[in-house]
Amino acid sequence: MSPPSRPLNKKRRETKIEDDGETDISDWSEAKTDGKLRLITFLVGIDSAITRYYNYDEARIRSALVVLMHTVNQYFYPLNIRLSIIDILPVKGTNMGLDDFTAWRKEQRNLIEHDITVLLRHNYEGGIAYSNGICSKNSLMISGFFPEATMNNAWVFMHQLAHVIGLTHQKKSKCKCKLAQDGKCLKLRGFEECSVQDMVDRLSNHTCLSPQSPSYSTNVLVPKRGSLPVCGNGLQEEEEECDCGPERFCDNILCDAVKCRFVLQKAYLAHLIPMGFAVLAFLIVLVLWKFLFFPAFASLFRSFASLGKAEEEGQNREHNENLNDVDVEQAPVRMRPTTDVPIPAENRRTRFSDIYVTMRPISRFWEKFQKQKEGSAAPI
After folding, report:
1. Are 17 and 152 spatial neighbours (Cβ–Cβ below 8 Å)?
2. Which of 228, 245, 267, 343 could pair with 85 in a Cys bridge, judged by C-beta atoms 3.0 to 4.6 Å apart?
3. CA gap 261, 244 in Å, rounded
4. Sign of torsion, CA 287 293 296 300?
5. Which ranges constitute the DSSP H helices of the chain?
6. How does 29-51 read in b/e, with b if 16+ C-beta sit within 10 Å?
7. In whole angstroms, what is the distance from residue 342 CA to residue 319 CA?
8. Within 13 Å of residue 314, how many CA atoms lie on the same side as its CB?
9. What pLDDT does 171 receive?
10. Phi, psi torsion values for 122, nearest 5 degrees
11. What is the pLDDT, as a whole number, of residue 178?
12. Checking DSSP bridges between strand 140-145 and strand 127-130, what pairing results, if any?
């Protein structure tokens, strides 16, 4: 098929992105967002030239798309935008234009629900899209695809996506970056400075991109069923054990951001997590015992000990007084009173003194412990 013969109308944006050799991932984390996560799903059409290039190998085509989407997600992740491919379809023909692609889409039946339909066109230097077409029947775009130029493919894809969201080449938003970037602050290639902020500001205008319901415990959106697993997009998709986003943004120490696999297998996690809670509970008990219960018990021990000791001394005095009442002349020598005769154990009344005798070792241990503590705390 040949490109459309009629000129582009005002709703179309055709762009050719020059490859400037940039390979570093720009930092868009300084863009101001509303803090809500948004999921944009794509249905991707592959033209005949691309399928021939990969020798009709579906696995190789899927792998190429994973690389493309992984790169694009590196940029959109800090903007709280998650991108996902929910289906891949072959498109017969080459050099297809936007009108041809629109007609192809209308002919398709039972398509999976999605937000944007995109055609990857082999060796096409640039892209074309309906401006502000998202959330309408014009939510389509064509993006050039060079199998060996991953970064340039990503830039072209992002540029057309920005057009579909509604971004124009006129600067409307203001932005500020911590580090001076010589006119590149939050700049999307092919647009003016602050274009990234402008694109983010337009998201709230599109009802079909209403914020999803994230799992607040993991801050991860739930992907649509059957989506192509793309490690690093923050969506735990099929074949993935976890997905904490791009490696530089991953804050889950249990998840390998490169492989989207748990660092430890689930069988180990099932035992480690309860064990971790048990250790934490034990530490809490130790802290409470040291600073709350132990001083209270120690004070109670000292109280019992002092009461027991006082009562024992009282019983000894009473016993000695009884001995003093005995007739010394008539009493045997062995019954003569002394000034310090302890009360026999069989005649002792059982009160606090028994508690004191029982707790005497504990009391002595506590007194020794306190003396050692005071000695170690004494200044040198």
Report:
1. yes
2. 228
3. 10
4. negative
5. 48-53, 58-76, 98-107, 150-165, 195-202, 266-288, 294-324, 352-377
6. eebebeeebbbbbbbbbbbbbbb
7. 8
8. 11
9. 72
10. -65, 130
11. 81
12. antiparallel
Residues 6+ apart with CB under 8 A from 380: none
Token pair for 21: 């050799």
- One DSSP character per residue, 126-174 reads SEEEETT-TTSTT-EEEEEE-TT-HHHHHHHHHHHHHHHHT--SS----
Amino acid at the residue 5: S
With both helix axes pointing from N to C terminus, report the angle between 195-202 and 150-165 in degrees, rounded to the nearest 10.
50
Tokens read off for 295: 């001083």
Dihedral sign from CA coordinates of 220, 221, 223, 229:
negative
- Is 271 marked within a binding site? no
Q: What pLDDT, on the 0 to 100 scale, is given for residue 216?
A: 38
pTM over 0.85: no
Encoded tokens for 106: 């209308």
Q: How far apart are CA 175 and CA 285, in angstroms?
A: 51
CA pair distance 164, 160, nearest whole angstrom:
6
- The reported pLDDT for the residue numbered 268 is 61
Could you count the other beta carbons within 10 Å of the beta carbon of residue 332?
7
Task: Give dist(CA 251, CA 310) in Å, integer.
Answer: 63
CA–CA separation, 379 and 320 (whole Å): 46
Tokens of 92: 């017969």
Q: Which two tokens stand for residue 15?
A: 């762009």
Q: Which residues in the chain come in under a pLDDT of 70?
A: 1-25, 180-181, 212-226, 265-272, 289-366, 369-370, 372-380
